[in-house]
Amino acid sequence: MKKHALLSFLILLSLVLAACGGAAPKKVIVATDATWPPFESVDETSKQIVGFDIDLFNAIAAKEGLQLEFKNVGFDPLLAGIAQCQYDAAISAITITDERKKSMAFSDTYFAAGQVVTVRTDNTDITTKDNLTGKTVGAQIGTTGAMEVEKVSGATLKTYDTVDLAYQDLMNGQVDAVVADNPLALGYVAKNADKIKTVGPVFTDENYGIAVCKTNADLLAKINKGLAAVKAEGTIDSLTTKWVGPGK
After folding, report:
1. How far apart are CA 136 and CA 134, in angstroms?
2. What does pTM read for this prediction?
3. Rounded CA gap, 22 and 11, in Å?
4. Is residue 195 domain-resident?
5. Which of 61, 65, 193, 205 sits between 20 and 30 A of 130, alpha carbons compared?
6. What φ, ψ does residue 130 adopt, rounded to 5°?
7. How far apart, in whole angstroms, are the C-alpha atoms of residue 191 and residue 186?
8. pLDDT at site 26
9. Measured between alpha carbons, how far is residue 38 from residues 23, 54, 74, 81, 87 in Å?
C-alpha cells in the first residue's frame, strides 16, 4: 500500500511541477520564398534570411511571444503548403486575393504595392502594359505578375521558379519584358540601371498580408494583434525606409 501511495504522490507531484513550469511555446513554422528582395532574400555573408518581411514578422512575434522558424521554399510550393497547412504561416510579399482566401487565411494588410513592367534600356516598343501584345513576358510562377500577363491578349507568358531568373533572361534578351511587384522591380533596376528600366505606371493596386493556415484562428488573432501594435509604433514606416527606401 505504501508503494502505491508513494507512486501516486510522485505522479501527482510531476503533474503539479509540469503545470507550474509550463510547456515551452510551440514554434511557428513560417514559409518564405527568399528570392524576393527587399522583402526576403538570403544574405550572402551570413547566409541568413533577411528583409522587410522577416523584420516585420520578428517584431510581431516579439509582441505576442511567438517563436518563429523560417523555411525557405519556392513561391508555388509555399502557396500549396500553406493551403494544406504544412506550414503555420507564410510571409513572402503575398498579395491578398479572393482566390487565395479560399484556401488560406490572411492577416490585416501591411504593405501596398502593384505590378509594373520592366524592359531593357534600349527597348522603345514597350512603354506600358498595353504594349505587351505579341511579346514574350517573364514572371515568377504563381505570382500576381504572372496572372496579370495572362490577362493580356496575345502576350506569351514565360514563368520562372524564381524572379531573379526572369530578370536575368530579360537582360540576356530571352524575354521582352518582366512583370513584377514595383518595390522588387525598382530594386533590380537600381542594381542594373545600365541594362533595364521600368516603363509605364504601376497598373494594379495590391495589398500584402501574412498567410495563415485556415484552421488556426488563434494564431491569426495573435498575428493581427501584434501587427496592430507594431503599426501603431511606426515600425512599418521605419522598415519601409530601411528596406524599400524613402518615397517609394
Report:
1. 7
2. 0.84
3. 16
4. yes
5. 193
6. -70, -15
7. 9
8. 81
9. 36, 10, 16, 23, 23
> What average pLDDT does the structure give for the chain?
91
CATH number at residue 215: 3.40.190.10
What's the total number of domains in the chain? 2
Residues 6+ apart with CB under 8 A from 86: 31
6 Cα distance to chain centroid = 55
pLDDT at 22 over 90: no
Q: Nine-digit cell at 142?
A: 504563381
Find the domain containing 187 and state its range: 115-199
The length of the chain is 248
**pLDDT tens column, 122-156:** 999 999 999 999 999 999 999 999 999 999 999 99
Which pLDDT belongs to residue 24?
55
Residue 196 has φ and ψ, to the nearest 5°, of -135, 160
Q: Which residue has the cell 484552421?
A: 215
Look at residue 16 in the predicted model and tell me its pLDDT. Answer: 46
